[in-house]
Each structure stands twice: as C-alpha cells, then as structure tokens.
Amino acid sequence: NICPEALLNSDEDAGVAVLVHELTHALGFTDDMFDKFIREDGTPIPQSEVVQEYQDAYGRSTAMIITPTVVKETQAQFGCTKVPGAALENEGGQGSANAHWEYRWFQVSG
C-alpha cells in the first residue's frame, strides 16, 4: 500500500526507502508468509525452521528468524556466535508485530 502523495512530499531517499520497505513485505517478509518459505531446490521449509520463539534476557517471548543465512548475518552483525537468529518486532498490532525487524536491535523503521 503506497500513497503517491506521500512519496511526492518526501525527499528521494525517503521515497526509495518506503518502496524497498513495502516491496520486502510483498516478497514475503510478513508473519503470514513464514510458512511459505522454500529452499533453493523448491521444497518447502517448515515454519519451525524459519521462525521460533525465544525468551529474551528479560524473560519476554521474542520471535526470531532462524534461517541459516539470517543467523550467519546476525551473528556477524553483532560479533556473537551465540545469537540464535534475528529478532522480530514484538510490539504493535497486526502488520507491525512479527513483520519487521526488532527496532531495539536494528534501529530501523522497517
């Protein structure tokens, strides 16, 4: 869902960021699609191998993407091999929670 007027009223970089953000959702980065991920050979990946719930350091339940590439890149980002995956946002309503990277970890709005 992209509002053309909002794009016209923002700078070019912000407009591109909005488009990339929304295209990422369209390509499957949303909790409604985690059970539809496939391997390179086209076979389905069970949702339990895509996303799992973990307890964070404060005892809160946090969903994490745990695919091998995401785990590798998250561990490299934080320099820590114990990070089990990349946390998903756990606040907000439908369309926000579990459909964006955890803001506290990645400090981005998408």
General description of the model:
With 110 residues, the protein is α+β, with helices and mostly antiparallel strands. 32% of the residues lie in helices and 11% in strands. The protein has 4 helices and 3 strands; from the N terminus they run ααββαβα. It has helices at residues 4-8, 12-26, 68-78, 103-106, and strands at 51-55, 61-65, 86-87. A 3-stranded antiparallel β-sheet has the order 1-2-3. The radius of gyration is 15 Å and the shape is globular. It starts with a helix and ends with a helix. The mean pLDDT is 83.
Q: Which features would summarize this protein structure in a list?
A:
alpha+beta; 11% strand
The percent range for helix content is: 25-40%
Through-space gap between termini: 14 Å
What low-confidence regions span 5 or more consecutive residues with pLDDT below 50? none
Mean pLDDT: 83
β-sheet strand percentage: 5-15%
Number of strands: 3
Structural class by sheet pairing and helices? alpha+beta
Query: Which sequence of strands runs across the widest sheet?
Result: 1-2-3
Order of helices and strands: HHEEHEH
Q: What is the 3D form?
A: globular
Biggest β-sheet description: 3 strands, antiparallel
Number of helices: 4
Radius of gyration: 15 Å
Topology:
Elements: H1 4-8, H2 12-26, E1 51-55, E2 61-65, H3 68-78, E3 86-87, H4 103-106
Antiparallel strand pairs: 1-2, 2-3
Give a nutshell description of this structure.
With 110 residues, the protein is α+β, with helices and mostly antiparallel strands. 32% of the residues lie in helices and 11% in strands. It has a 3-stranded antiparallel beta sheet with strand order 1-2-3.
